[in-house]
Each structure stands twice: as structure tokens, then as C-alpha cells.
Specification:
Number of helices: 5
Number of domains: 1
Largest sheet: 2 strands, antiparallel
Structural class: mainly alpha
Strand order of the largest sheet: 1-2
Number of strands: 2
Shape: elongated
Radius of gyration: 23 Å
């Protein structure tokens, strides 16, 4: 997977995550504004049923699914970056991406890779082609 594909996939995952968060937040805010939740003191004690409640629940579920899709897409972009950097002779970028991803700092590792990381597929094409032999 080339660096440009990893970049597009990672940016798409960020957009999907943000869109899902907006959708889910909109559902919750609309539910609060329309008194769908029954609140006693500081506790949520019930939900008023009806078409609006079910619609807003559906909106929250759609938002959650879009967030999950964004997270999965980000994971696929990270794996693509790992596979891309594995092809390099120096394994420094691979080790940095792997360790930061394991320690839950993969977002920052991906940002660093997208800004300054090498493209392993660009160098692998030159490395594997034999030189022309003239007789």
C-alpha cells in the first residue's frame, strides 16, 4: 500500500470519525432539548417513548456506526503504514509506528508518518529491478 493510499485512508477515517461524533452528539442534544430523557436530580431514570425517541435513538446508532467505521479505517491505514515501512531497509519508522500504536499513541505516529515518513513502495521498485546487460 503506497503512502498516498495510506494518507487518503487516514484522512477519510478522521472525517468519518468527526462526522459520526457530530451525528451522535446531535442525537443526544436533540433528545435532551425535546425532553426525551426523564431526569430526576442528576440521574437519568427513564426515556419517554414515541416516534421522536426512536428516531433519535436511530440517529445515535448511525453516529456510533460511523464512528466505528472511522476507527476501523484508521486501523487499516496504520497497518498499511506498517506494511509500507517494513519494506524499507532501515526499520526505524516501522519500529516507531509499531511501538506508538501499541502504546495507544498511533494517531501521533500516523501524523508524523504522513508529514515526514518515507514511502517504502517507491524504493522497493528500484531495489528489485536488475540492471540491463549488454553484450
Amino acid at each position: 500500500m503506497s503512502k498516498s493510499v495510506v494518507t487518503r485512508l487516514f484522512i477519510a477515517s478522521l472525517i468519518a470519525f468527526a462526522t459520526g461524533a457530530v451525528i451522535a452528539t446531535t442525537g443526544v442534544v436533540l433528545a435532551i432539548a425535546n425532553d426525551v430523557f426523564v431526569i430526576a436530580g442528576s440521574e437519568l431514570v427513564g426515556v419517554r417513548g414515541g416516534a421522536l425517541a426512536w428516531s433519535l435513538l436511530g440517529l445515535g446508532i448511525v453516529g456510533g456506526l460511523v464512528i466505528a467505521g472511522g476507527l476501523v479505517s484508521g486501523l487499516v491505514a496504520w497497518i498499511g503504514a506498517l506494511l509500507n515501512t517494513w519494506q524499507l531497509e532501515s526499520k526505524t519508522w516501522f519500529a516507531v509506528l509499531l511501538l506508538l500504536g501499541i502504546f495507544n499513541l498511533g494517531f501521533f505516529a500516523m501524523l508524523a508518518y504522513l508529514i515526514a515518513g518515507p514511502d517504502g513502495t517507491a524504493s522497493s521498485g528500484r531495489r528489485g529491478t536488475p540492471a540491463a546487460v549488454t553484450a
